[in-house]
Design goal:
binds magnesium ion, Aldehyde Dehydrogenase, Chain A, domain 1, 18 helices, 22 strands, seven-stranded mixed β-sheet, binds 1,4-dihydronicotinamide adenine dinucleotide, alpha/beta, six-stranded mixed β-sheet, disordered N terminus, Aldehyde Dehydrogenase, Chain A, domain 2
């Protein structure tokens, strides 16, 4: 590991040429504690990655040019550099993709026995594992998230989703006792930029396992791993038209939602677009699952293991730049330990490394886009204007790209906008509470209900809270942990329907008795 303090390691590395006198002079030098914790740069290599200059749409088993003839540039948000040109898909491309998906469903995939579908899905999972390093580097280059996260979380979890649902493909009759599950037909899937490959896996794996064909629209700012996935799916020999990937902007997504040829829409993204989709499909037979915004309550009781809880708070909001719909963005600390928790949290924030996402030591990478950066900065201004006390550790941000310091807002209240609205950045609003009843009331007093976290030594408090918090996922003495076998989804304006686990199969089938 490249961790040692530079001034100590250098003389050791050059020991054949350094005199004894010089070495001892260096060794006795007393580094300041700040310097001691500086890590030497440890950038991940990009050499094994091959990217094309220009990417077309993947429709009917072929890479085809967009109807408009237009391409847009996709950038690396950590540097602003253009990485590739991406096809700007429109309504006509969506129509071609839906037609290809319908043909594949009617002629082949819809009739294929589960055990045959499973073989393809297992193959996708294995090939993703084999190419994991390449996927991780591209995810970080295009999305800005630290390589440590794309390497250790996003890509392995994406492969695991394909493994998990491949296992269900020939066992669907056991998933729904006394009912016969039938695939729906063509699924339209629209995904966001915060977990580009993982969200593609969450959507594709259960759809394919249940016998549906798919048209997937990646987010405009992070299309590259989905396009790499198109290449992988092609190499895996998945029959043409079973998976179609159409890149483009909001209007391409809207065309997919409104296309009469789709049977189901699966969407992850902002609450306003979720509401638009619900209105657009009202009165049609289209099924939908919507996974929307969040503003999770992260609750710390006085009997919690404080050091672990502080680590959980940091993991919950600062890692992945707070670009997580289930981010623990509202912190509730029991009053008698508030001072201690805040002191430790500030100390920990000082050690967070903000910078080059390709560096293996980086904790907080680049904000995904200029739009998102502007939104976060605007909320930071709002927080200050609302009278909350701001804390940001001193750290130099890279000159290029979009970066944000980890930010704490103290003395916030329920009525503050920074407490009520989704910021989607490394910004944490802190409140205190005295009783269990008070914190439940405050935690639930919000339009969202995606997730929550609780830290306490007492099991009974955990059970009490999990039954009373209006949130789809409640983590206890941990945070942001995912498993393909666990369902995920929200209450209230965080959407409806579940993804993951046995529950994640249900939105892709109709049950016949
Ligand atoms: P968005 O909801 O606009 O984008 C998500 C996906 O929907 C993208 O693929 C986009 O092209 C597509 N889309 C946009 N308009 C559409 C429409 N009318 N019909 C169909 N598809 C459409 O999210 P955006 O603008 O990228 O981010 C805005 C805010 O949304 C963020 O600041 C964050 O607060 C929230 N967000 C929440 C996410 C979550 O996981 N729940 C993910 C991404 C953003
Ligand atoms: Mg939008």
């Amino acid at each position: 590991m490249a961790i040692a303090k530079k001034k100590v390691t250098k003389p050791i590395a050059k020991k054949s040429v350094v005199t004894t006198k010089k070495v001892s002079a260096q060794k006795t030098e007393n580094p300041s504690s700040d310097d001691f914790w500086k890590y030497a740069p440890a950038p991940e290599s990009k050499d094994h990655v091959t990217l094309k200059e220009k990417y077309d749409l993947y429709i009917g088993g072929k890479f085809v040019k967009p109807n408009s003839g237009k391409y847009y540039e996709t950038i690396n948000p950590a540097s602003g550099e253009v990485i590739a040109k991406i096809a700007d898909g429109n309504e006509k491309d969506i129509h071609l993709a839906v037609t290809a998906a319908r043909k594949a469903y009617d002629q082949h995939w819809g009739k294929l026995p589960g055990k045959e579908r499973a073989k393809y899905i297992f193959r996708i999972a294995r090939m993703m594992q084999e190419r994991a390093r390449e996927f991780a580097v591209i995810e970080t280059m295009n999305g800005g998230k630290p390589i440590r996260e794309s390497r250790d979380i996003d890509i392995p979890l994406a492969a695991n989703h394909f493994f998990y649902y491949a296992g269900w493909a020939d066992k669907l009759d056991y998933a729904f006792p006394n009912a016969k599950p039938k695939s729906l037909g063509v699924a339209g899937q629209i995904i966001p930029w915060n977990f580009p490959l993982l969200m593609a896996a969450w959507k594709l794996a259960p759809a394919l396992a249940t016998g549906n064909t798919v048209v997937l629209k990646p987010a405009e700012s992070t299309p590259l791993t989905a396009l790499k996935l198109a290449e992988l799916i092609h190499d895996a020999g998945v029959p043409e038209g079973v998976v179609n990937i159409v890149t483009g902007f909001g209007p391409a997504g809207a065309s997919l939602v409104n296309h009469p040829g789709i049977d189901k829409i699966a969407f992850t993204g902002s609450t306003p677009v979720g509401k638009y989709i619900q209105k657009a499909i009202a009165g049609t037979p289209k099924k939908a699952t919507l996974e929307l915004g969040g503003k999770a309550a992260h609750i710390i009781f006085d009997d919690a293991p404080i050091d672990q809880a502080v680590e959980g708070i940091v993991n919950g909001i600062f890692f992945n730049q707070g670009h997580v719909c289930c981010a623990g963005s509202r912190l509730f600390i029991q009053e008698n330990v508030a001072e201690l928790v805040i002191r430790k949290l500030k100390q920990r924030m000082k050690t967070l490394i903000v910078g080059d996402p390709m560096d293996k030591n980086t904790d907080i990478g680049a904000i995904n886009s200029k739009e998102q950066m502007d939104k976060i900065n605007q909320y930071i201004k709002i927080g200050i204007k609302e009278g909350a006390e701001i804390y940001q550790p001193e750290c130099a941000l890279p000159a290029k790209g979009f970066f944000c310091k980890p930010t704490l807002f103290l003395h916030t209240s329920q009525s503050h906008r920074i407490v009520q609205e989704e910021i989607f950045g490394p910004v944490l609003a802190v409140q205190t509470f005295r009783t269990l009843e008070e914190v439940i009331e405050k935690a639930n007093n919000i339009p969202y209900g995606l997730s929550a976290g609780v830290w306490t030594d007492k099991g009974s408090k955990i059970f009490n809270l999990t039954t009373q918090l209006r949130a789809g996922v409640v983590w206890a003495n941990t945070y942001n942990k995912f498993d393909p076998a666990s369902p995920f989804g929200g209450y209230k304006e965080s959407g409806f329907g579940r993804e993951g686990g046995l529950h994640g199969l249900y939105p892709y089938v109709s049950l016949q008795s």
